[in-house]
Each structure stands twice: as structure tokens, then as C-alpha cells.
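Q: Here's a chain of 145 amino acids. Please give me its 3D structure as C-alpha cells.
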Amino acid sequence: CPTGVLPTTDVIHILKYGAKREDVIESDHVKSIYLPNQWLRQTNIVDTPGTNAILQTHQQITEHFIPRSDYILFVTSVDRPFSESERLFLVRIHEWRKKVLIILNKIDQIQQTADKEKIVNYVQTNARQVLDDTTVPIFPISALK
């Protein structure tokens, strides 16, 4: 799905198993993308418009869909790890009683191992407090690589 520093996704994209087809319109705010990936036979991956954008409709679309999800892959980045708006959204996710895995993106931008560890610990400490869960998994990744 598209990504960028400016808002790029204004609808929910659902990745499903099937012959490759993109942007099959399901409703006003939902499009499906079909891919022949065997893993998608047993699950769907949903990309929401997200939060923390100036467009309030993006937040509303996301908040409407998240309660129907089984598991949340919450993506944050090292350039602004665990912002206040992310904290507030994680509070909502906790209220909805959803399981969460946190993906810390852009880890390749941090050169020093000690700095990487500080950022991971910062996100982990704050996420554990908000989600009241000592086992919140955090995966530092580089989507670019």
C-alpha cells in the first residue's frame, strides 16, 4: 500500500487471497487487493488510513474499523517514537481489548547500537504502561531494506 510523509491512504485496504487484482471497491471506505500469497488464505491484512493526520476522516475511518480487528500491528517510527497521539490511540486500542504487536520502523536511520536500544526501551516502557501488558512484542525493522 502507498506510504509517504504526507497522508497517502484515505480508505481501508484489505489484502486478501486470490488472483492478483488491485483496488476492488467494496464500499465507500474499503478497497480490496487480491494477491496469490498462500499466507492470505487464512488471514486478511488491513491497512487503515491511520491516525495523527490533519484529515479527521482518516482517524474516524480507522477508529471505526479497529474494533472489528483480531490483532493490531501498530507501526511507529524512530524519528518520532511513541508520540502523544500514538499514546492516545493505544489507550483506545487497550479499551477495545485488542492484542498488539508494535513495529518500530526506520531503525536503519539510527547508527549507534546503544541509541537503538534506548529507543526500543522507550517505546517498550511506554507501550507496557498504556496497554498494561508486560509482554508487548516490539519489532525494530527497516521497511526500506
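Q: Can you summarize the key feature?
A: The helical segments are 56-65, 84-95, 113-131.
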